[in-house]
Amino acid sequence: MPVFLISFDLDRIGSNYTSLRKKLVGLNALQAQGSVWFARHDGSADDLRNHLQECLDHNDRLFVGMINDDWSAVNMGAPGRWLREQVVAPGD
Hints:
The protein is an alpha+beta fold and 92 residues long. It has helices spanning 15-26, 45-53, 77-86; strands at residues 3-9, 30-33, 36-40, 61-67. Strands 2-3-1-4 form a 4-stranded antiparallel sheet, sandwiched between helices. A hairpin with a 2-residue loop joins strand 2 (30-33) and strand 3 (36-40). The two termini are 14 Å apart. The model has no long low-confidence stretch (mean pLDDT 89).
């Protein structure tokens, strides 16, 4: 199952943030940084975006992208370990 990076910027934090967080937790997503999450999802980036977009206002921003085996990080701790365990190199 692919792993996606989800990043959002909410213009006005309020009730929508709670709704978005509930959806992410419902996906068993892992919070990597403040508004950056990792999630395994058996679908496309568009599908995941559409699922999360319901919680956003018209001026909020959302990015969803699939992570492949070519990534690098510094001082990511547990989220970095989780990502290393989840993203398998092609052919492995």
